[in-house]
Amino acid sequence: MTPDLGKYAVEVLSAYAASVVLLVALIAVTLRRGRIARAALKEVEREVKSDG
Amino acid sequence: MSIWQYANPVKFLSLSAKVQPVLWVAAGFCVVVGLIWGFFGTPDDFRQGSTVKIIYLHVPAALMAINAWFMMLITSLIWLVRRHHVSVLAAKAAAPVGMVMTVIALVTGAIWGQPMWGTWWAWDPRLTSFLILFLFYLGYIALWEAIEDPDTAADLTSVLCLVGSVFAVLSRYAVQFWNQGLHQGTSVPVATGGRTVSDVFFYPLVMCMVGFGLLFLALVLYRTGTEIRLRRTAALRARAGGNV
Questions:
Q1: Concatenated DSSP letters for A1-52?
Q2: Does the beta carbon of B221 lie under 8 angstroms from any beta carbon of chain A?
Q3: pTM (two decimals)
Q4: Cα first-last separation, chain A
């Protein structure tokens, strides 16, 4: 499956691994922070409404 | 119909919610297909061997690292001139994305440089200006966190963004006007149209560049929405006198 990367296999695979890890981490942190912000806003809006 | 109507956070969020699903799907498709195509479907280069496959990560990441700063420059200028909060929040949202792109460009460049140049790092004009750009991203993010008043933070980070633009321009053009370094010329010079990459490497590279661009847009829209919601939450809490 993996193409023959020859003597540079470690370099190529580590470049891909590092980039994928960084991109996935960025997307995960972004989505998590977004979910937290949505929940916090909903809660504050609910509490403000209930306080009249 | 004016672009300034999207300075209204409600209108911005409404448009963003409509556009984002398309952007995420298109970005995911282009990045995944581009990387698989580049990794599995292209031959080794006659000089670089299989390390040529690193360009599908390095070039799009470097492109977005620089263009993210230019996007921040434009939105910061809009804040300074017209005081639209959504604009400066978009700049704040883009900074971590641009920083990660800069890190990817620096890391993949170093990994490629070791076997090709015989060194992980050289104080070459483009490499050095990229490192300084990374430090500007760090400083920009730190400045937002360090100042409590959001409008003061927006003013100061916008000024920092203007200063940092010098290094974004240097990063972009260093290889063209400062030809003493190790870094080779631009692979896809947009201005001149001539390119140094053959078709077999070029098409998957374009796919990855488009994918990274779309991913950047999707992330910035999502993160700007998050910043707007955080700002609204803080405003409601302040209005309720800290009882909420």
A1: -----GGGHHHHHHHHHHHHHHHHHHHHHHHHHHHHHHHHHHHHHHHHHHT-
A2: no
A3: 0.91
A4: 63
Q: What is the DSSP letter of B49?
A: B
Residues 58-87 of B with CB under 8 A from A: 58, 61
Q: Which residue of A has its CA nearest to B111?
A: A11
A52: nearest CA partner in chain B: B240
pLDDT tens-digit profile of B77-128? 999 999 999 999 999 999 999 999 999 999 999 999 999 988 999 888 888 8
Q: According to the CATH classification, is domain B19-232 in 1.20.120?
A: yes
Domain boundaries along the sequence of chain A: 26-52
Task: Name chain A contacts of B57, Cβ cutoff 8 Å.
Answer: 15-16, 19
Does residue B32 sit at the A interface (CB-CB below 8 Å)?
no
Q: Where are the domains of chain B?
A: 19-232
**Each residue of B152-173: b (16+ CB within 10 Å) or e?**
ebbbbbbebbeebbebbebbbe
Interface check for B112 against chain A (CB to CB < 8 A): the answer is yes
